[in-house]
Amino acid sequence: MSSIFSQKKILVTGAGSGLGREIALAFSRLGGTVILAGRNTQKLEETAQAISETPGKSWVIPFDVNNNQSIDNLFDEIKNKVGTLDIAVNNAGVFSFGFVDETSSEDFNHVFTTNVIGLFESLKRELQSMKENRDGTIVNISSNMSIGLNIPGTAAYTASKAAVDALTRVSAKEAITHGVRVFSINPGPLATEMTQLPGESAADRDKRWRDLIPIGRIGDVKEIAEAIIWSCSGQSDYLVGSRIVIDGGHSL
């Protein structure tokens, strides 16, 4: 088990902190070579330093999901450094709070450009690469907000993640004929900075979410990473196009 990804080359976007960092570490603990992509080079280097203490390896490649040239550069570097990807986790994304009539077009477009268009541009290049080998696994990180929670103030984010789900389903049906599996992981609230209100402590955040989630606590990024490990490990090869909701019953 400790080396099941030792021959695998894995891309994780948004790998500098939070869920992305934990996903990258989870793969590296099992021997994977992980390409760490994101905007904050310092945070990516911190993830790489943590990976250096595991059996795995890492490459840091600065990357802006909102910039097509940056996306091209990422995939050019991947091809030059490691060749073809085996696994890609499209985790880069942003959250924005604002009621519909108070949200500017600029803010709405920024959320969609990052969460949908940027993911699409990455997904397209991943598919082009993996189809050549007729093998590969792509995980799109979505959200449980996409499935009908309808929380006021989250219209832009919710709409963007619903689009991610739709893109996942269609691309999964196209890709599986070429031996590539695509599916989404839809987490509920996690103990990361994204779920904290301005000025709110981590303890107060956890207490606030405790009353809103049936299981009685906020989620841990390790729980999401473990699900991704299972879904990419070869133990779930019949999993295609699924939306895997992990949210402690929040969406029930």
UniProtKB/TrEMBL annotation:
Residues 8-212 form the Ketoreductase domain. This is SDR family oxidoreductase. Its EC number is 1.-.-.-. Belongs to the short-chain dehydrogenases/reductases (SDR) family. It holds the Pfam family adh_short_C2. InterPro entries: KR_dom, NAD(P)-bd_dom_sf, SDR_fam. It comes from the Bacteria. Keywords: Acyltransferase, Oxidoreductase, Transferase. One of its GO terms (molecular function) is acyltransferase activity. The keyword Glycosyltransferase does not apply. It comes from Buttiauxella gaviniae.
